Amino acid sequence: MATVLRSQCAFARLFVGKTGQILNNAIDLGVKLAPEPQSALLSKNYSNYAHSPFVTKIKKEQYEYEIVKKPPEWTYVERLLPFNTIPAVTPKETYPSGWIPPREEAKNLPFFLPRTKFHDLPIYLHVTYRGMRKISKIKRIEGDIWLLNDEIKKYLKEKNKRYVETRVQEVARFIEVKGDHVNYLIEWAHTKGF
Q: Would you say which domain of life the source belongs to (predicted)?
């Protein structure tokens, strides 16, 4: 407490004779100073929103601006905006990314894997339990899901030389395969024409 008073005394010595600048803060002078009328608005920090005063309406707008419907600079902004719909793919012999388009013969099969809106196959890998559990998932299946499950099991058994467990969710239209078999499943889907 003594150090606080000493620091306040040293601070008060700066304002000796300036009674209007020290408001009720002159402990060492022994006199409570009366404030002079102040014309300037002092900023005050409030402890929370509820105790702060209402904001008065600003008389004049701070910034001047004009509204333009389609400025010439907008063409540069439009290039950066994402597409509302993904454009159709232009057919080519090969694509630099290695992407393979779907073929018409896939529509004649009793089951179908439609592409996503980004023209990709709906085959994903879900990793859980800090990387200990890996499940390959085929989503958005249309048609005979049980026949598709049998064909996947047969194909993965030939590739891995062992039995592979699967789980069919008929209502949600997806199949889960135990293990990381995403590359094999994508390869199988391309051979079928999906």
A: Eukaryota
Per-residue buried b or exposed e for 73-111, using 16+ beta carbons within 10 Å of the residue's own CB:
eeeeeeeeeeeeeeeeeeeeeeeeeeeeebeeebeebeb
Written as six digits, the tokens of 65 are: 């601006």
Q: Which tokens go with 141?
A: 């299946």
| Integer-rounded Cα radius of gyration of the chain | 37
Query: What is the secondary structure of 137-154 as a DSSP string?
Result: EE-S-EE-HHHHHHHHHH
pLDDT tens profile 18-48: 544 444 444 544 545 455 555 455 567 777 8
Provide the residue type at 23 as one letter. Answer: L
3-state DSSP call for residue 174?
strand
Spatial separation of the C-alpha atoms in residues 75 and 141, rounded to whole Å:
40
Q: How far is CA 73 from the centre of its chain?
A: 28
DSSP letter, residue 40: S
Name residues whose C-beta falls within 8 Å of residue 81's C-beta, 6 or more positions apart in sequence: none
Residue 138 is predicted with a pLDDT of 98
